[in-house]
Amino acid sequence: MLHIDGVEAGYGTGKVLLGVNLEAPSGQVTAVIGRNGVGKTTTLKAILGILPLAAGKVSLDNMDLSHKQVHEIVRSGIGYVPEGRQIFPTLTVLENLRVGQRRPPRIWTEDRLLELFPNLRERASNLGRALSGGEQQMLAIARALVTDVKVLMLDEPTQGLAPKVVDQIGDVIRRLKAEGVAVLLVEQNLNLTENVADRVLVMSKGKIVETVGIESFRSNGEEIRHRWLTI
Ligand SMILES: Nc1ncnc2c1ncn2[C@@H]1O[C@H](COP(=O)(O)OP(=O)(O)OP(=O)(O)O)[C@@H](O)[C@H]1O
Ligand SMILES: [Mg+2]
């Protein structure tokens, strides 16, 4: 379980996160929604150690990760798929996967990854740049898994993808959840959120302001959308 407690962080002297509290339990999908610029991506960067914490604590299964280096945080089992799926365009699919490995994965071996992403198996020797947007996103997720992640953080994974591909990403997220991964999903696509999330956290102005169970989100989605997402 990932625990974030009172986290404050920002860029230079400007604080963006003003005390973020959240939990992402194993085997669950925790979604974070909120208007543009409220600090969703910044939260993921603070968890990963890309941004230093000005206050607060990040811990994974009672291991304190606050103020650790990014590589230590990644090694402890936190995977990150940034917005815009940054894969290596001039490496093949298999090479992209191998670049991310520090040691042979125990949980997400190449075989299991290619079973989870059959499209990637078909395209194993294609260059990254030859893949469709959806395939690139699948590859970005697969690459994050090779470090045997306990927590997978996804930043708007369905942005710009066709509805059919969004469904495939949804299937992958459900499968990871069934494997016991704690998924922390930042997503603007509320249909996908409704389909995969267990809990929805609403972020506003650098804080989590509401935690909504999925049943309640399904029945009150319109009201939540109106209150927290419309401009
Ligand atoms: N590299 C940066 N340097 C300075 N300010 C930044 C930087 N990145 C983001 N910000 C600012 O921090 C605030 C939060 O940005 P963040 O990217 O976390 O928002 P977000 O909730 O992910 O928004 P979106 O839905 O648009 O992705 C914004 O005001 C943004 O302008
Ligand atoms: Mg963002």
Protein described:
The two termini are 33 Å apart. The chain is of the alpha/beta class and 231 residues long. The chain has nine helices and ten strands. The mean pLDDT is 94. It has a single domain, classed as Rossmann fold (3-Layer(aba) Sandwich), CATH 3.40.50. The longest helix is centred in the last third of the chain and has 16 residues, at 163-178. The protein is 37% helix and 26% strand. The strands form two sheets. Strands 6-7-8-3-9-10 form a six-stranded mixed sheet, with helices on both faces. Strands 2-1-4-5 form a four-stranded antiparallel sheet, with helices on one face. A hairpin with a 2-residue loop joins strand 1 and strand 2. The structure holds adenosine-5'-triphosphate (ATP) and magnesium ion. Adenosine-5'-triphosphate binds at residues 11, 16, 34, 36-42.
Highlighted features:
alpha/beta; Rossmann fold; six-stranded mixed β-sheet; four-stranded antiparallel β-sheet; 9 helices; binds magnesium ion
